[in-house]
Design brief:
By secondary structure, chain A is of the alpha/beta class. Chain A has eleven helices and nine strands. The longest helix of chain A has 19 residues, at 48-66. The longest helix of chain B has 36 residues, at 2-37. Chain B starts with a helix and ends in a 14-residue tail after the last helix. Chain B is elongated, with a radius of gyration of 27 Å. Helices cover 48% and strands 19% of the residues of chain B. In chain B, helix 1 runs antiparallel to helix 2. Chain B has helices at residues 2-37, 40-71, 80-85, 98-117, 162-171, 178-188, 191-195, 232-235, 282-309, 348-354, 357-390; strands at 87-94, 131-140, 146-155, 200-206, 215-226, 241-245, 263-267, 273-276, 325-330, 335-338, 343-346. The chains are: A alpha/beta, B alpha+beta. Chain A binds chain B through residues 21-23, 29-35, 44-45, 47-49, 51-52, 54-55, 174, 176-178, 182, 185-187, 189-190, 194, 198-199, 233, 235-236, 266-268, 270, 272, and chain B through 243, 245, 247, 250-257, 259, 261, 279-284.
Amino acid sequence: LSKDERDAYISLLERRMQHEPLQYIIGKWDFHFLTGLKIKKPMLCPRPETEELVELVLAEVGNLLRDWKEKRKMRILDVGCGTGAIGIAIANKYPAAVQVVALDVLPEAVDLSNENAEQFLSRYSAHGDSKLGVKSIYEAMLCSATHFTNNTTNTSRDLSKKKYKMNFDIVVSNPPYIPLKDMIDLSSDVVEYESYEALCGGEDGLNVIRDIVHRLPEWTFSSSSRAKHCWMEVDESHPRHLARWLSPGSVEARRCGVEYVESYTDFCGRDRFVKLRVS
Amino acid sequence: GKELSSLSAVSYLCERAAEIHAERVSLLELLAETKSAGGEEASEMEEEIKQELVDLDEQSTALSHKFLHSLVPLINPDDLQDLTALDAVIDIRAGTGGDEACLFAAELMASYEATARAGGGDDSGYGAKSWEVEVLSVSRTDLGGIKEASLVVSSSKGGGGGYNSFDSHQQEDIPQNDEELTNHLLSQLGPYGFFRFESGVHRVQRVPVNDVKMQTSAVSVAIMPSLPDHALPTALPPNELKIDTMRASGAGGQHVNTTESAVRVTHIPTGIMACIQDERSQHKNKAKALKLVAARVYSHRKEQETKDRSAIRSSLMGGGDRSERIRTYNFPQDRITDHRCKVSVSGVSSWLSGGGVVRNFAPYLYMMEREERVEKLEEEEIVNAKKQSRSGEKRKGSRTKSSH
């Protein structure tokens, strides 16, 4: 190794010795079939479990496409997009059939998601929709779950006052879900580098999840009788809470307009994913 | 349509055979007459007739070969689908010989990769198909050798020459010579059909790098058909699989950031497993592991079936014995010998680096395998004939000609 190479290598090692996540040091990692997804502090480094969330949603997209009668593309909302991993992985599989809108409260996350989308999806937008480019397939914008309504406009200079149709077919999210009491147990490579907002979901970890549930009926409003599902990655403790809270036919489920359908385990056998239905 | 054209080819041959037979009969009659007539003119005539009979015999022989080809094709019809359409998983494992074996294993792997990337075509690119190679896993040694490796060779359209070319060839003339035969065969084969006879133990004899004494090492190769992705859930039902991943013992999910992505897939009924950790995406590692396990399980099941069915364990038809020594690469004598078809070629290094080994030996082995099938058919004929003569029934129809 030349001296420059050696110095560079040593400084990288020193960062690692400070427990900086490997993905931040290298600047990219692989997720699902996205090779070289850009990753930057403080956005959450995509975990392997989340690849399974992508697979669950892809299965539903595949099913819906078999009977798809709408003239428009299938619309998917990714809440809390971070690096953009989830939404981009989905769009990467069905670029001609889906359009993803992604939200995050961190400007850096919005920029990173759009950057990654450009990297992986621009090859599909070469033909048709040339004015919109990648945005016809994937668009990330700065907005919280609570504030995303049919009056929301994207204030970035790229799109002027454009409003978003609230007719999403699928909502997916890997929201911050760690309960407050668990935050203290996190190892240093997580808690010192990754964004607190991307991890902590409040006292019981359900804060952002509740925000999402309350917005679901409005986001998926349409005249179609087709069932609209919301898929989320959650903390181990959450599936049973959600099953109780949104139990089909219960007062709360009717009030929220959302029902709990079922949960799925991850490859470690932990309750990790929930499926909700807008009733 | 396909059956009609193949039947019409055979019926044409039958007509020719009948014609030759009729001509032979009339010539023999003429010969008898001429002999009895006597005289100088007669003996000239006799010579002419005898010459014509010799020509007729040659035609008859040529016809036999054509019969053989159209009735017993080089590719066993039972295996046609597999051999033309399926992709190949190649397992290479260094055997006896320590570092030397590992080095040779790496050379064999490079050779197969080169062949696959060249689409199974020859040096000039003739017969090349569009194939892709992907390394599923590899375990390297410090000296640049490999302990073991698994590759998958896939055809982008999911097939080799495919059914189509087979169909069209049936309507054309039957290949006239060995070269046409070879090219026709190779054009039909998909990755699995092309590589299948590489299964077995490859022996190498040479003087290792830091030594003076010659050493014999061995590398074993296994070629398995790779099932297409959509067939995986049926071939490997999820309840028959155990999937292990390296993951923190803590709460997992957002709680932990780890870059460990190793996946081990075990097929519970057979115990066959694969562990892949080459990729950073756990999902990709799982996909590769499933592909590998599916190929190994399929191959294992087929071997069991064949063992149960026939006693001919090391026949080519039966898929060969995996521990059978099939080929020796002798560097000092600069010769590669295939022990099954007993064919040798010289120029070990160039054959290996050029990657033409597979393409060279495959046709001989297919021909050998066809011989086995013909023998089996003949045996069956004899058994049937005995049965029928015992029951007193007269045999109808013309007998097909068999090879010499």
